[in-house]
Amino acid sequence: MIQNETITNILTRVTVRRFTDEPVSDEALHILLQAAMAAPSSMNLQPWHFIVVRDEIVKQCLKDCLPYAKMINRGCTGIVVCGDISLYEHINEVDKEDNTLYWVQDCSAASENLLLAAHAIGLGAVWTGIYPLESRVGKLRELLAIPAHIVPLNLILVGHPVVLPLPKEKWDEKKLHYDKY
């Protein structure tokens, strides 16, 4: 089997929900955001925007308004991954219907890059969903002063793991199909 550092990183990445109080360094944060912005995107629009949340009061508000963000603590940094839907306004009407939701895929690719980069540099991370639940989108818009043309997709919490869980085997041959379903 072909094995290298990249494949090992992908196969051993795990969701981390418990973080120490040690803060994420500016250098590590820069690496994570650089990796996120290296993601592929539809029509190379790169619709992503990132809101970095380190303020303890804002983190507590996130914890209070997002049901799956209860693991927020002093050491973790929150990164709200958002998409700019205004970038699709220039697309002609024939293509518009097919392209307007590509921001979700693009920002998801950026999110996965961020998660993999966190694992590669020894940090832990967890993806918590925001979009498409309008109640969550609305709360984040208000809390973080997000303009109407920017949509928050998810909140990724990054920090130093208390423990690194063992990776689960996710390979499932039954989910593999060749040539047709």
From TrEMBL:
It comes from Phocaeicola salanitronis (strain DSM 18170 / JCM 13657 / CCUG 60908 / BL78). GO terms for molecular function: oxidoreductase activity. Residues 10-63, 93-160 form the Nitroreductase domain. It comes from the Bacteria. CDD domains: nitroreductase (cd02150). Gene3D superfamilies: NADH Oxidase. InterPro entries: Nitroreductase, Nitroreductase-like, Nitroreductase/BluB. This is Nitroreductase. Pfam families: Nitroreductase. The lineage of its organism: Bacteria, Pseudomonadati, Bacteroidota, Bacteroidia, Bacteroidales.
